[in-house]
What does this fold into?
Amino acid sequence: KPLSPELVEAASAVASFLPLNKKQTESELIAQLRRHEETTDKQKKGGTINIRNVISEMAIKRQSPAQRGVRISNRISLELDEDGQRIKPERLSPQSFDSRSLKVGRRLNIFTKASTETENALKTVSSPTIWDLEFAKEIAAITAQPPRNGFEEMIQWTKEGILWEFPIDNEAGMEDDAEFHEHIFLEKHLEDFPKQGPIRHFMELVICGLSKNPYLSVKQKIEHIEWFQKYFEEKKELLQEI
It folds into this structure.
């Protein structure tokens, strides 16, 4: 997404106003604006990948109808005698049932007995490492396919944060101790900037764009303004040294 021509022109005017390397100053200002746009697009699309979503998308092997039919036919054939007559199951009295425990009796030694160390190792589940997270991201990127129908599209939008997740949380996306006016009226953060001139005009355009941006938090907007404040202060100190 290209930057606003008016904003680029204001950045060029600021670079011309400072008697230093104009091209470098202009490129640094535009680079910061582009980083801000990338952050906005990332939070708008909700590009975070969750391992839980990757696991939930894994395919589960199911029996085909043909395999299911073979099992049913085999079960039916076992219930017929030699003459083709169906064998009636005998009624078992409650006394015929004998409860037994699985842990008593002679071992057949078919399976090896698990050691206590293995059992303790299975009990302690370690948290996923950064390599596991990167591997999950690669799997999600490889298996990502466009939605085939409207239902899959709505599922994808829900994962990206475009649609509400259920059950709906009315406070989702709201910041703590952040009022609506703090997102809109950002002029109070320009007190340390010049009252007039190209720098003032440039910063007014910046806060105008920030006030219209619903995808950034108040903290991110203030940090964006403070970056320009520190940048111009460093340039001012450099000019005084010269």
About this structure: The chain has ten helices and no strands.
